[in-house]
Every structure is written in structure tokens, then in C-alpha cells.
Amino acid sequence: MQKQPLAHKIASWLVPVAAAALIFAFLQIAPPGILEKADAIGYAVCHRLEERSFSIDGRQMPLCARCSGMYLGAVLGMAFLAVRYPRQAGTPPKWALAALVLFGLAFAVDGSNSYLYLIKSSRPGALDFLPNLYIPNNTLRLFTGTGMGLAISTALYISFNQTFWQNWNDKPVLGRGKDFAALVALAVLMNLLLLPEWSLVLYPAAFLSAGGVLLLLSLVYAMLWLMLMRQENSFLHLGEAWVALLAGLTVALLQITVIDLFRLWLTGTWGGFPLP
Question: How far is it, in rounded angstroms, from Cα 150 to Cα 78?
Fold first, then answer.
């Protein structure tokens, strides 16, 4: 049996302690209430402007429409790929890559157009020489955000498999056209269920979107942890990687907590960024 390096032994003790401390700190800093904890996660990554967010029984979602779509799309994409392409990490075929790039371009165009509209609305006379392509709306924000989430999840899923597993294979993800079509259809169906703003749909969506923030950040930091500890491609089972995954969650919570504190100090509110 290979002897475990001292740094890895120390980490297996320190990481759980750090994780417990960060979880406790976040729960103390975040506003009271379960949905409010989700709000605090969204607060670290989203502007949370009320008019650009869906509402649950009169209160806004933890993330705006665009960010809700992006993180829900990312969760959907990760789950779909894990079921259909376990441990596969090959580059998608060119047609799938082209579609994902188009999703990203749509996100960029709609986001830029929406931001320009926001500046013009909040500062009359500013940037009037730049025309808006169209009047932005939450439906477009949701769909373009979801497309970007699918693209992010594909890139992250490939990177995760190539970093964590000893036995990952290089078969392409989304290599079957019917699977890509099924994933897009599921994303469209998800959005069509979100648009009527039914409470029965939006409550789980609120927690899933906030959880998506934690998921993506945790996986990115877990991969960085493995690189730092020189443990890439060391694992056969997810349970063997618990220290790296917990370390990723810890750093993700640290980032969220620090940004929350800074934004709260800067704006004095847990709501959206105040407009001039």
C-alpha cells in the first residue's frame, strides 16, 4: 500500500474543520430563513434586480431570470451528462460545439443589449447614440441564460472527469444527436414550466439555482485543489475524493461569504444593486 503524503493526512483533518467553520459563518451572516439563505448565495453572484427576476408569492427569486436560467441549465446539463455519459471526457463533435458556441453568443448579445437598456433607463440621455437591438425581457434572459448554462456544464463536466478519475475515457460527450436534442428539449420544457411563475415550480427552482452556484464553484475549486495537491487522476470512486470535494465547497463558501460581506457593506441592503 502506498504511503499517504503528510500534506494529505493534514488536509483530511483540517478541511472538515474549515468546512464546519465556513458553514457556521455563512449561516450566521445570511438573513434568517431558508429562502433567505438561498438569497445570500445568489447575492454573491447576481445583481438581483427585482424587475429582472421572477417572483414566488410576491418575493423575488434568489437569482435574476438570466442567472436562474444559467445555473438551472448547468445543473440540468451536469445531471444529464452524468447519466448518459458517465466518466466520458472527450470533446463533443463539431456540430455540438458549434451549437454550444451559439448558445454562448446568444447569452453575450442578449446580456449586452440588456445592460445597455439598463444604463439608458437609469441614466436618461446616456449612450443615446447606441441603439438597442430590441427591448429586453425576462423570457429572453431565461432562455439565453439556460443555453449558457448548458455550455458551461459541458465544459465543466469534461474538465471534472479528466481531472478526477483514473479510468476516464475519451469518448465524446454529446456524441449522439438524439441526446443533444433531448437535452435541449428538457431545457426548453424546464423554462416553459418556469415562465408562468407557478409557486409549485419556482420554490424548487429557487433552491436548485442557488445550489447550482455552490455546485459549479465547488467543482472548480475541487479541481484546483487536486492540482495543488498533485492528486489529479487519483480516484476510482467519488467517495475517495471527499477531501477534494469538501475543500472545493469550503473555498466556494468562503468566496460567497466574503463577497456577501463586501456587497452588504457597500450597498447596505440584501436586495438588488441600487440604481442611480
Answer: 8
DSSP per position, 3-31: PPPHHHHHHHHHHHHHHHHHHHHHHHHSP
- Residue 105 φ then ψ, to 5°: -65, -40
For 138-196, the pLDDT digits (tens) are 999 999 999 999 999 999 999 999 999 999 999 999 999 999 999 999 999 999 999 99
Find the distance separating the first CA and the last CA of the chain, reported in whole Å: 63
Cα gap 23→218, rounded to integer Å: 13
Cα 122 to chain centroid, rounded: 28
Gap between the Cα atoms of 79 and 153, Å rounded: 9
- d(Cα 260, Cα 268) in Å, to the nearest integer? 11
Query: Cβ(113)–Cβ(136) under 8 Å?
Result: yes
Rounded to the nearest 5°, which phi and psi values hold at 19? -65, -45
- Render 56-67 in DSSP notation, one character per residue: ETTEE-SS-HHH
Domain coordinates in residue numbering, the chain? 6-267
Per the confidence metrics, is the pTM higher than 0.85? yes
Contact 235, 165 (CB under 8 A): yes
**What secondary structure letter does DSSP report for 60?**
E
